[in-house]
Specification:
Layout lengths: L1 H11 L1 H12 L11 H17 L3 E5 L3 E4 L2 E4 L3 E6 L7 E7 L19 E2 L4 E3 L3 H21 L6 E7 L9 H8 L9 E4 L11 E6 L1 E10 L5 E2 H4 L6 H9 L23 H5 L8 H8 L9 H9 L3 E8 L10 E2 L2 E10 L5 H18 L5 E10 L2 E2 L5 H14 L4 E5 L5 H9 L3 E3 L15 E3 H18 L5
Parallel strand pairs: 5-8, 5-9, 9-19, 10-18
Antiparallel strand pairs: 1-4, 2-3, 4-8, 6-7, 7-20, 10-17, 11-15, 11-16, 12-14, 13-15
The protein binds ligand BES and zinc ion (ZN).
């Protein structure tokens, strides 16, 4: 049986796969930092070389240029690779991203973030290990196993890999739409491995994501920074106005204060309530992942509902504020408050922006400040919800049962992968999220890791899914 040979190859060659991940992690492809843009390009080249060496036919698309605060930067390529072109087979599209979040040892990493380290518990630690280099390489490992064993893949496999996901996927959507009837023409279903198990023990399939709307709230007053001893008490201070406004966005227990924001949120049905029972998740796992017992909600159901299916508003930072150690008696002239709202069905991003702008403007007017205020939505992506009854999910569930001998949990996520919805809408095909890593991997955080067993079984899962999906009617 080809699938058995495939599984044996993966088990026996896992050290080669770890070496592949080591090489990938060593390239600091941080898309949000202009100083690393060439590394993002190097990471694309690395993947192109790996894919070509395995016989894939590789093309790239150029998303153009990015205006990064007045600096023009080239955008890294969209890597499109095809393995197999048999009209009798189904075509599965896989998406992943090869850029990573920033990481500095000073942030508190125990080891150099761009040197893959395997600890005594067989955790592969390094930036991008779980988000999203491990999963991307998982697909490449599947191709390698087939090539080396002289096996044909059960489907035609198409890759779409981008290098700007962590920075809002700039330039990708137009390419998806313009290639919908070209490169993506024969795609029958889509699979994305860019999220995580709910906990640490049980695999899951994911059928929902929250959307995100990101805002910049700018308050300006003086021509330049002022001395607080000379001007304090005599002028309206931008930071004072900003804090007054930011404090009116959300309560400490997570309730969003923007009027009307909850009006579009879909009601929880009795049927949905039942889906939260029996999920492999404990409050202790939340405590462990957070590193403290600071949960707002006491029950698993409330916690998961507030992560998955209710909106949340987070305050992220203040540009222009004094933040160094020590005491500087400055009055900053211009400050930009950053916050975002995670959105859920049936919220519409345009409506969210309208409500936020109106509320912040009304509240600013109440301050009677002579400073000026502007608020804009800088980027956004809509929420996404699929149906776990779709044959694409049924196939993936069978693959989980074969590899892990357990039925997967069906989960949603609180994070966002805006391209998921783009694929669904542009290609009109089902999209499945099939995670590789665990809920405690620490994506975006320090000491990000992917357990060796998740990397190896995850590679087995991705390959087995291709066999199962080749058998269903899509
Ligand atoms: N891999 C994550 C998406 C994710 C986050 C899935 C949390 C599951 C749980 C992805 O790399 C990411 O971080 N996306 C951004 C998107 C944003 C920049 C539009 C996010 O969610 O903040
Ligand atoms: Zn990711």
């Amino acid at each position: 049986m080809p699938v058995v040979k495939f599984l044996e190859y993966v088990e026996e060659h896992q050290n080669d796969f770890v070496e592949r991940l080591r090489k990938a992690v060593a390239i600091p492809s941080v898309s949000g930092d202009p100083a690393h843009r060439q590394d993002v390009f190097r990471m694309a080249d690395f993947l192109i070389d790996e894919l070509k060496a395995l016989g894939a036919s590789v093309e790239t698309r150029d998303p153009g240029q990015q205006d990064f605060h007045g600096q023009t930067l080239p955008l890294p390529p969209i890597v499109l690779a095809t393995v197999g072109n048999d009209p009798a087979k189904k075509t599965i599209l896989v998406y992943g991203h090869y850029d990573v979040q920033p990481a500095l040892i000073e942030d508190g990493w125990a080891t150099d973030p761009f040197t893959l380290v395997e600890d005594d518990q067989h955790r592969l630690i390094g930036r991008g290990s779980t988000d999203d280099k491990g999963p991307v390489l998982g697909w490449i490992n599947v191709v390698e196993a087939h090539k080396k064993m002289g096996l044909e893949l059960p489907v035609n496999l198409k890759f779409c890999l981008e290098g700007m996901e962590e920075s809002g996927s700039e330039g990708l959507d137009p390419i998806i739409y313009s290639e919908a009837d070209k490169y993506f023409r024969d795609v029958d279903a889509v699979c994305i491995s860019d999220n995580y198990w709910l906990g640490t023990t049980k695999p899951c399939l994911t059928y929902g994501l929250r959307g995100v709307s990101y805002f910049h709230l700018t308050v300006k007053g003086p021509r330049a920074d002022l001395h607080s001893g000379v001007f304090g008490g005599t002028v309206h201070e931008p930071m004072t106005d900003l804090f007054a406004l930011m404090s009116k966005l959300v309560t400490p227990d997570g309730k969003i204060l923007v009027p009307g924001i909850y009006d579009q949120v879909r009601q929880v049905t009795d049927e949905e309530q039942k889906t939260y029972d029996h999920l492999a998740f404990k409050m202790e796992e939340l405590h462990d992942a957070v590193g403290n017992k600071i949960n707002i909600h006491e029950s698993i159901r409330d916690t998961l509902q507030h992560r998955w299916r209710f909106p949340s508003l987070s305050l992220h930072g203040v540009e222009g504020a004094f933040y160094n150690p020590g005491d500087k008696t400055v009055v900053p002239a211009r400050v930009v408050g950053k916050f975002s709202i995670r959105t859920v069905p049936d919220m519409e991003p345009e409506k969210v922006t309208e409500l936020v702008k109106k509320y912040v403007t009304d509240e600013f007017n109440k301050l009677n400040s002579k400073n000026s205020m502007t608020i804009e939505c800088t980027h956004g992506g809509n929420h996404w919800l699929s149906s776990p009854q779709h044959p694409n999910y049924v196939a993936a569930a069978k693959a989980v049962e074969k590899v892990f001998s357990v039925k997967p949990d069906l989960t949603r996520e609180g994070g966002s992968i805006p391209v998921t919805l783009s694929f669904q809408e542009a290609l009109k095909k089902n999209v499945l999220l099939l995670p590789m890593g665990r809920g405690d991997d620490g994506a975006h955080s320090i000491n990000e890791k992917l357990d060796r067993s998740n990397y190896v079984s995850g590679t087995k899962l991705l390959g087995t899914y291709l066999y199962e999906v080749s058998q269903v009617q899509l």
